[in-house]
Amino acid sequence: MNGEKLWKIIQHQDADDNRREMPRAALSRRTFIELIGFSAASLILSSCRPPQQKIIPFVHQPVEMTPGLANWYASTCGGCSSACGALVKVRDGRPIKLEGNPEHPLSNGGLCAIAHAMVFNLYDSERLRQPLVGSKPSTWNEVDAQITGKLDAIKKSGGKVRVLTSTIVSPTSREIIARFLSQFADGRHIIYEAVSNAAIRQSHLRTHKTATSPVYNFEKAKLVISFGADFLGAQGSSVQSAKEYARARNLRDESREMLRHVQFESRMSLTGSNADARYRVSPQEEIDALLLLARLVAEKKGSAAPAAIQSFDPPRLGARLREAIAAIAGEIVKHTGKSIILSGSNDSDVQAVVNFINHLAGNYGNTLHLDITSSPEGSGQSGDAEMVRLVEEMKQGQIAALLIFSANPVYDYFNRDELTSALARVPLKISFNSHTDETTALADFTCPHPHFLETWDDAQPSPRVFSLNQPTIAPLFETRPYQESLLLWSGERRAYYDVLRDNWKARLFPLQKKWATFDEFWDQSLHDGVFVAETVTTVEPAFIVDEVGRAAEALKSRNAEGLSLILYEKISMRDGRHASNPWLQEMPDPITKVTWDNYATVSPGLARELQLEEGRVIRLSNASASIEIPVFIQPGQDDSSVAVALGYGRTKAGRGGSAVGVNVYPFVRFENGTFQYTSGVRIEKTANKIELAMTQRHATLDGRPIVREITLADYIEGRIDEGQSHTSEPRSIWKDHPYGDHKWAMVVDLNSCIGCSACLLSCQAENNVPVVGREEVLRQREMHWIRLDRYYKGDDENTAVVYQPVMCFQCDNASCESVCPVLATVHSSEGLNMQVYNRCVGTRYCANNCAYKVRRFNWFEYPHTDPTANLALNPDVTVRTRGVMEKCTFCIQRIEEVKILARNEGREIRDKEIQTACQQSCPTQAIFFGDMADAESRVNKLKHDERDYILLEELNLRPQISYLAKVRNSPREEA
Amino acid sequence: MSVALKHEGEHEAHHQELSPLRRPLIEGRKTYGDVTTDICSLMERKPGGLWWAAFITSLTIFLAGAIATTYTVTTGIGTWGLNKTVGWAFDITNFVFWIGIGHAGTFISAILFLFNQKWRTSVNRSAEAMTLIAVMCAGIFPIIHMGRPWLFYWVLPYPNQRGSLWVNFRSPLLWDFFAISTYFIISAVFWYLGLVPDLATARDRIRSKWRHALYRVMSLGWNGSNRTWSRYETVYLILAALATPLVLSVHSIVSFDFATSVIPGWHSTIFPPYFVAGAVFSGFAMVMTLMILVRKLMKLEAYITPQHLENMCKVTLLTGSIVTVAYLTEAFIGFYSGNPNEMFVIINRAMGPYSWAYWTMVTCNAIVPQFFWFKKARTSIPMIFVLSILINVGMWFERFVIIVTSLHRDFLPSSWAMYTPTVTEIVIMLGSFGLFFTLFLLFLRIFPVISMNEVKGVLHYARD
């Protein structure tokens, strides 16, 4: 059948060709001479062109590679230790984009903003290009010779060797490190996380006798009570959490059930901003609330509680809070086994009480699991105390060699001076970091590790899940995986790839029964990027109540007065390791919308009291540190605390990242065996003022129905359109556009969007959106094609937040189209509003007349002069020049790609086959794209959802994006 | 060459029935010969120190503007204070301002001509020159405000080889192009036609070789015969009739740039008449400013009398009052519409961050002209001078308020932004004033400042 069809097509084409052929006429002498003359002239003219660069084709073209077509490889994101599954898009040998791997059991196709920014790091021309001896470039042979000599000497002398890394999620790498260390008389692997969550493990050691972090399952939960935990933002594996959280709160497809989320917190976190009920508490009140909740749950459950909890009566909590906590205790009991209680604290006393409530609520084994058989943290993850001890040992001159990978303690250790002087006493310091960062600058040898897109690796993000990381490009620079260096220095000259394979053969291959041979197993795992072990044994350890009493006693005695400083991680900058990445620096914080800076968030009440205004520089000081930092007035922030983001103030983070913001790591305390991120400070006003580069200056809706929000109760009762009457279809003076086979449209579910801004970075990477820098953001000229509008509701104390992703609405009656004098913005037959860059003369009339203000103008020629950085550009998307307008295109290049594919395969485009960049990686799947011409398409059905509404419908612009109203799972009187 | 200086007496066609009780339009009992000598000598004499000082100052400011413009074109619109929300500010404000200034000339020469307002004769020549120069100044801004000004000709509907690429006839910017170019051409022709008899006079007097050659060519062989006069006046009348609707159309169409948009504060049906009244208002104010300067600088007190200024004050009072009504209507409709966005614009203008600009506008445009109800204000030249300048400040701010306050806070509060001009923009704006005065000062030296042939028709002497 197929053959026949094909034949017909060829025949058809032949007929066409014949028709086009020139009629044959006898060639007269005159015509002949004319033709000769023209040919000669054209030959001469064509040789007048400037010399052109020769493009050398592949002598042997790789089988899988077709120029102009992208190849996708399943791999693992190395942006943080969450190790989400990623698909790497490779065009002509260059990885240009990371997307979520939909088959990955944890991240499920989602990726965070950092993952998208990692492509920039790959082509960062400031990465180290060869090994260094001191600060001088050297060769691998030279470096190896020197290091081996020194290590041999240590082996003989029996000196202490330490490998200092951040969390290593790769089981094979951990093994290599262990093997390397086993050569020495005293070798230890110290895991140091600048922003630590060691208290969770430590508390489980106390309450369950296992130093393990639980694996949360938000999808199963009906109730989440969070005490300052930013689990949707920077804490833990946020993509996975966000994905499950959004699923549990999904109201599409007739679902009427929704997870309820209550947050107690001092600063306004991304997670808190999404809560159904958010209680603004001081850090001290947060602990009180937790203890009171423990008492009430125990009472309601009739369980025995330690005396310290039974007798607890919080002096500080107001009546409103007490009532709320009582109600929550009732809800926890109602949803036994279906709730999750979390805390963001790194204090094991606090976490022990959290464990106690989770235990009372019957959550262990249901919504959170402690897996002690093969947990990565169980094997080898060390606590914060070990880092402190290491510094102590170094200070005493006991450490003979320190090998550092993926850690930058000189920047982020709380006692920097002590560490620096301690480091000076270590005779051999080797850094594997890829940049000359603060720590590497002090190293004797630097053996740069390649970018994760250039190297093999594996990862075990959760006990059952193993994923593979494969190189998608040959190393750009003279780098070598640290694993190979360690192997070499252990006397094994082997490629890391071989070790990895052997390790998988020995350990993981037996964990499955599907594949008979290892090669098949390997190929499949490599293809999928992930392997999920079939057999896993979970042990439920018994709960030890005694520790809770001790913890509660300790907490009750703690009585912090005065102003507290809360240190937190921003979702863009995290602990500061990616500070040199300008995409992340320019990513607006979801809540404050500030780019390129950290700042002290101060409550409006405190600001009034101290007469502070936005941008006013204040001095925060205590015994350990003193900094000057601008103020950001944050509604919803508690009055007795200020919060400052970590990860800023790097001194050696390249051109873009150095001297951005202020380093607040010196305020970190080491107490109770862990790093504490809250400390008491004094606040002083200074005379200076700094303007913060914000992408959104106005924060409230002013009563405009822009973001629609209803309560779950109203939604269930069908009272969805209260006060928002639909008017009859307004008339237009223009005729409707004729549309062809497709009409692209989008639906954004505001109930799913958590504001994480992964879409923004995904769009930036996909569409070659330039970074403009702090000064230009100050002038309100950021270029992002998608923005996340954030509005506050309520008052300064009871602040609710709503997010709204806004990109080009592709209006049918586009106000931009009618005003362009040169027809540079036109309507396509598929309903897209297209911007013709090379026709645009830059009158900006379209941007002025855009009701949604989604158009972005190229105010300057944004430089594309760095040849290495240019490799990150998506060749399917034009790089825009100065003076032209640009905007979201609905990823027209992706639409066309699928259209071509479908045409080649002789079929229709399938629903959901086209995914825009913002949609693909959305961890919460808030964005839906599809064809309105297809009555059965997902997007078409969602447009008929009750919650569907059109922004600024009254203007009759007929936009192709609509929103699904946000639903808050809160009683009506709170809304 | 064969024509003698005879046409001075041939003004019967213009003979007017003026009451002897009326004050003469031209003071000092000038004879025809006096008029010719007075006006032509201005072109024949070497310029005085005051003229040079004014000229060099203007030229310097213009050159500074030219440098700032070059900087903009070579570096990018980013050198201005615009942002993602406010895409137009000083650029289009200056454009509309200058187009508005360019309204008085044709109004005086065409509409007042049709209404037989004889007092126009003393001021129409320079008012028309002002119009042409102002339109030239205005024309610069739509070009340099483009992101890629070197491609400005893409806005023109010229035959090209780019297939179906054509201009967008739905775009008000395109209508602007047609409206302004038509207006400029008609105004220029009208002005030039009015100049021809005077150029012939100059041709016959001036001995300088170059000047003589210039005026000979430009006077198109004028011979002052009855037949020439008769045809000349017919054509002048027809052109006046043609130019009249243009006075109304140009600013109506300029107002469409805003009126046809969706932005609250722009989207308004009141704009065409409101803009036209405002344009005539500002144009007359500018004529008054200039005439007060010219009569001093060129010693033309006898020709441009307080009576002329008083008449113009009356026009200013009328148009200023129309503008005031427009402001009130706009505010009323804003509330009456029940549209929260419209209401917000009105409140934001009056009480928002740009309220200072709004109240400057209201003070200068609604309150200042009310002084002209008083004869004392209308006849005091220093007073008129100050008030007319204030009116132009107000009218500049009117355009600024309309453009910036509407754009900076529109539908979605997330995109709200502030606009602050940069030095580059300010220098470009000043540069346009520099250009305006440079060209105007040149006009004063090269062409007869006062329409001699028309003034002679209204002399007392003619009535005796």
Task: Describe the overall structure.
- The complex is a heterodimer of chains A (975) and B (464).
- Chain A has 975 residues and is α/β, with parallel strands linked by helices.
- A 7-stranded mixed sheet of chain A has the order 5-4-16-15-14-6-7, with helices on both faces. Chain A has a 7-stranded mixed sheet with strand order 28-20-25-22-24-23-29. Chain A has a 4-stranded parallel sheet with strand order 11-10-9-12.
- In chain A, helix 3 packs parallel to helix 24 (758-766), helix 9 (283-301) runs parallel beside helix 12 (348-360) and helix 12 packs across helix 19 (546-557).
- The longest helix of chain A has 19 residues, at 2-20.
- Chain B has one domain (7-158, 183-463).
- In chain B, helix 3 (90-101) packs across helix 9, helix 8 packs across helix 9 (271-297) and helix 12 (355-367) runs antiparallel to helix 14.
- The interface between A and B is large, with 56 and 49 residues.
Q: Could you report the average pLDDT of chain B, rounded to the nearest whole number?
A: 87
Helix content of chain A: 25-40%
From N to C, what is the helix and strand string of chain B? Answer: HHHHHHHHHHHHHHHHH
Number of domains of chain B: 1
Low-confidence stretches of chain A: 1-23, 374-380
Mean pLDDT of chain A: 86
Spatial strand sequence of the major β-sheet of chain A: 5-4-16-15-14-6-7
Q: Count all strands of chain A and give the number.
A: 42
Largest sheet of chain A: 7 strands, mixed
Largest interface, with Cβ-Cβ < 8 Å? A-B, 56 and 49 residues
CATH second-level architecture of the largest domain in chain A:
2-Layer Sandwich
Extract low-pLDDT stretches of chain B. 1-16
The CATH topology annotation of the largest domain in chain A reads as Alpha-Beta Plaits
Tally of extended strands of chain B?
0
